[in-house]
Amino acid sequence: MTQTHHPLDDTLIAFASGTLDEARHFVIAAHLHSCAKCRQTVAMLHEVGGALLESANPAELSVGALDRALAKIEPQVKDNQQRSAGVSDTATSLDETLLQDLLSAPGKGPWNWVAPGVHVRSLLRPAGKGARVFLLKAAPGLGLPNHTHTGTELTLVLQGAFSHAAGRFSPGDLDDADETDEHTPLVEPGQSCICLVAMDGQLKLRGLLGLVMQPFVRI
Fold it and tell me: Which of 50, 61, 87, 104 lies most in the core, judged by the most C-beta atoms within 10 Å?
């Protein structure tokens, strides 16, 4: 599998530094599973970060400062390790096991209708935050309304393909969008397009059709 579309540099830097939010971290980890190029970039960023730490001038700590710092970061470190589990340095494709795990989503509920030809299945909604992770399934040949977003949206293609002004997105490709992006995705004929999506904010549908559909679309 050769990916054409990858996360933005800022997104990968945030992932490597552990500052990316939980929802987007989940999707980036799935992308890394199939993308050797991005795995290499993340490894390089880790090396750069380590070198910067080694070259930093030491500062004297107050009594108990280390224990207090470790107590604060330990839960986050464990959380990041758990979310990154399964992202192998040698993985070469979106293998069948990962794909089936995501599509079966045990205990995560049924596919829910949100618009003609479009269904979603919730996977993750971090407590107290507007971000969420879900599977999006669109029917073959479906043209989605022109839209933008009120926040960020990461879309990883698992099955099928879609196209918009930025190009064609097939399995393993990732669309990294925010409120500055406006697009009109078109699903290719022949197979439903299933994507893993991390979204913060809401869709903003454009045009007359968008105005009609907006009250009924809840993603």
Answer: 87
